[in-house]
Amino acid sequence: MHPVQKHLMDTEFSGLEGTRFEGTIALSDELINLGILEALAKLKSAGQPNTTETTAPKVAVQGPSESSEPSVDPKALLQKLNVDKLRYRTEDGKTMVDIKLNFG
Amino acid sequence: MAEQLAPIKALLEAPRDHLAGTDMWIKLPLGRTLINEVLAARPPDTPVKDLFMDPDPGNLIHIHLEAAAPVVGSIRRRLTFKPGPAVTFPDQPWLHLDITEGFKFMDKPVIRLLQSTIEKKLPKGIEFSSDYLRIHVPAMLTKAGYQKLVPLIRHLEIRGGDDQIILLFHLKA
């Protein structure tokens, strides 16, 4: 694992405390239909350790250096997330999410 | 590089279409210990022997640097960086930091060596002199494969802080 990733995980992302998001995210219907929400959910679970032996040989062939490295677990990030506002609406072929959140 | 998921790929190919209506401010503070970890993760074979950041309660960033160059040998300097104006597109693509104090006249060989190391080791778009460090943000994003996100960045500012550096973004599509 990259030392910066390791530091982030070891310190429970304390180096990013005070992060704030405020505004609106708009996602096109096309993006929703392509499965952007499922893709984000997949990214969320990417930090789970992979214990299935069967996938190991395949990964090793493609890139041994990446085979056993767990990525940053987003769950640790989500635990420190404070949501002040989260409002969904749809208009003109898109989904709008008004958000105000901070981390820490 | 891992294969991108289809919706992420679609988003990066046409972010203005898929994110139209997005208007978001992001404040991203980076703590001193985190920044020092980033600085410590530099490539091992550079003339920089030691590099770490000091806090400052004002809008300044202090970096301790120890570097070695032929003839002049090893030098230790505490460089003070003052953040410049915010990045805005297309008029102001540079993330600019003035070096207000730290280098001395006789440090030119070390500065030249650092410049050549930056040219060899880092992507194009990072400029370093005795007076400033500046980063061409569109070049960096293009190098990372995110060229089409460039027009979405309406504002990118770096600020010094108490034990942290703060990045302030405004993204609009």
Indicate the CATH class of chain A: Alpha Beta
For the biggest β-sheet of chain A, the strand order reads 1-3-2
What count of domains describes the coordinates of chain B?
Answer: 1
Name the shape of chain B in a single word.
Answer: globular
| Largest inter-chain contact set | A-B, 31 and 31 residues
Helix content estimate of chain A: 25-40%
Query: Outline of chain A, from the CA principal axes?
Result: flat
Provide a count of the helices of chain A: 5
Number of domains of chain A: 1
Give the H and E element order of chain A: HEHHHHEE
CATH topology of chain A: Alpha-Beta Plaits
The fraction of residues assigned to DSSP E strands of chain B is 35-45%
How is the main sheet of chain A built?
3 strands, antiparallel
Overall residue-averaged pLDDT value of chain A: 77
Taking the alpha carbons of the first and last residues of chain A, their distance comes to: 24 Å
Number of strands of chain B: 9
Q: Low-confidence stretches of chain B at least 5 residues in length (pLDDT < 50)? A: none
Region (Disordered) (chain A): 45-74
Explain how this protein is built.
Chain A: Residues 45-74 are annotated as: Disordered. With 104 residues, chain A is α+β, with helices and mostly antiparallel strands. Chain A has one domain (1-44, 74-104): 2-Layer Sandwich (Alpha-Beta Plaits), CATH 3.30.70. Chain A has helices spanning 3-10, 29-34, 36-45, 56-62, 74-79; strands spanning 19-28, 81-91, 94-103. In chain A, strands 1-3-2 form a three-stranded antiparallel sheet. Chain B is of the alpha+beta class and 173 residues long. Chain B has one domain (6-172). The A-B interface holds A 2-4, 7-8, 11, 14-28, 30-31, 34-36, 38-39, 42, 94, 96 and B 5-8, 10-11, 17-31, 33-35, 37-38, 40-41, 164, 166, 173.
